[in-house]
Amino acid sequence: MSEPSQRQDRPHLSAGRSWAPLIDAVTAILDEGADPHSPNTPLNVADVARRAGVSRPTFYKYFRDVPTLVRAAALQRMEATFERVPTVELGDTWTVFARDTFQTLLTDLAAHRRFYLSAIALNPADVASDFVRYISHRLLAYSPLGPVIHRRKGPDTAAERAEFLAAGTVWLVQQWLAASADPLAEVPDMVDRLSALLLSSSGATEQEIAAVRSASPATTTVATHPGTTPAGASPERIA
């Protein structure tokens, strides 16, 4: 993720060299298990700036407050994780897509559980919405379920349906991270659970669900949409 040119809620533009130390400082603090609800946690502006080796005015040059900084740090780590998700190949089924995508994402989330749970606690609406946006985009643009989501008729749009599925995914994963005694060991089970839940909630027909589970193509007619299966192709395969 690039750096911001000025203080803003969602920094993306390039900026000075003091931006990265602030991101690194708050990331390290949250990785160390800082309790965002404790008054003794070094998560005020002065402590974060001191850890980063910058001044308070420098902090406010880039970020409105600590939650805004936390969101930027979470977004940077999130983007790095999504960049490691394996590329979808021609003919990949939903089973392959879900396994590769969620294995990568959930492993990173479990490995950095302290960071992500604290980030959500400090900035719940923005951090969660960033995850929803990433997952919904991937479901629509890269997933074998994209054509199924697009094909459904109703007052809601395909983007709204994908966001609904992604929001449920984010909520479920957050609950799992908070409750699990050993999330890394449970990643394979969570991959299977999310794969099954998204498939059954996507609007796919029984025939399509059975075809995906057996890793064999199902014949169906779907509309052509950018980044999804062309008309007449199987919804469990990527064009």
TrEMBL record:
InterPro entries: Homeodomain-like_sf, HTH_TetR. Residues 44-63 bind DNA. The keyword DNA-binding applies. Keywords: DNA-binding. Residues 214-239 are annotated as: Disordered. It comes from the Bacteria. Residues 16-81 form the HTH tetR-type domain. It holds the Pfam family TetR_N. Residues 217-239 have a biased composition (Low complexity). PROSITE patterns: HTH_TETR_2 (PS50977). Coiled coil: none annotated. This is HTH tetR-type domain-containing protein. It comes from Citricoccus zhacaiensis.
